[in-house]
Amino acid sequence: MKISPLQKARYDYKPKLPTIFRQDIHSIIPVFGQKAEPEIHREELKNMFPNTYGKPVVGFTNGKNESISEKRNVGVILSGGQAPGGHNVIAGLFDALKNANADSKLFGFRGGPSGLLNNDAVEITSEFLDPFRNTGGFDIIGSGRTKLETEEQFAVCVDVCTTREITSLVVIGGDDSNTNAAVLAEYFSAKKSGITVIGAPKTIDGDLKNEAIEISFGFDTATKTYAELIGNIARDANSAKKYWHFIKLMGRSASHIALECALQTQPNIALISEEIEKNQTTLKEIVEDITETVAERSRQGNDFGLVLVPEGLIEFIPEMKILIAELNDLMADHTAHFITLNTFETQSEWINANLSMDSSYVFSSLPNNIQRQLLMDRDPHGNVQVSRIETEKLLIEMVDNRLKELKNVGKFDGRFSTQHHFFGYEGRCAFPSNFDADYCYSLGYNAFMLIASEITGYISSISNLSSPAEEWKAGGIPVTMMMNLEQRHGSKKPVIRKALVELEGNPFKEFAEKRKIWALETSYTFPGAIQYYGPAEVCDQPTITLSLEQKEK
Asked: Pick the catalytic residue: 95, 175, 205, 436?
């Protein structure tokens, strides 16, 4: 197979590790700290996880470690959507495993959790792994979204692991995947199966983090990839001077991607869902704010600009949130009847007749194409598929209509020509940045060290990440420490709490301080492509978000 020069060069890249791991692996021992508990719902979670709750935080120090040399079989699963660096988590895990005992084996379950249920695995060897080192994607073994959550599934997992003599599983995934991993660890412990489970924090959305998990892997690469594209569009906009570009960015539950990309590129407008929800800003008010910026820039002779829109924005707008909740309930309670309505007109008529008066008004005021998207097939939880709602087009149409109203009364005489974009898949499988290549390799290496510490229900943690890699700190925290209880399908379920943009945090404050200037002045910055070779200040820097957050500590 022909490969590019960059691809070949990346195979040879040697990821950097924290200093503690830059020595003979047999000279590293675990250090157990204070008991770690969640912020809320402690008693309920303790009852749900009697065998894995309240375990101590783990770190590492120097010391003779004889037990680390034991021969082990370990399984690894990629779960959920892709994120740059997943291959390096596996590479770090593999190298640590083999450094401890060359006879140990790593099995990769194909296609995500379903591979474990189907006993579909491949032994990962050096020859198999080497073409995937420092590359993007999850294609080494594939991923999947099957949830491991029933006792029947757990029993199958025990049988498969026992058959292959696997004593530890590493689940590389997001909040749902690591929640499932914690439940699986609890089951294994209760059944005294002898199988441990360790997680690794993955999601480009950036919403899987806390004091111990400073960033989820993939966020760095994805935001740098998107920022390059936004910068390219900004340069084009300032060159052609004739288009307003509305760019939707991934991030359904949180606006971390939009905020980071705004800090990197300085667009005229960047909407932050969490701020809109806090201020109860209506759709009409959002449209009015954008309209005012467009009109003022036009008066200055600038009929062009950039607007960044988080993917999940529509669920944070108060009247839209209520509408979507009512639609979800209606569709869930009357599925059989709804599918008999064969035309959009009959569907719309039935929906309007059954919505509350306020929601019916909101639904009717939306453009026809947005109404249709709200009524499309639901996700597996029965909810509106927010990612398929073209919020950027909704805003374009509503701003355009408002500008036409202003033009009719002589308050706007400029042009409003638009382009729309959605950046999502472009960032999920990009070549990982040096930061993500190093971070992910360290997460994998660290995951093995947690396995060798004979603990379970933990997530791999590398911290102090805004410093050079040699100053990074390795350890692990119990997944239960990150949980709370949420209402799911009529009952309370343990889930890892999503980290939203902190409006009192340094990253948002930095953005809020500058955005009025960016709105009217053409202040675009151009990050350019991710760099892999050159000075550390160019190649190894973390995101602006992470650097600003570290200043808070």
From this structure: 205
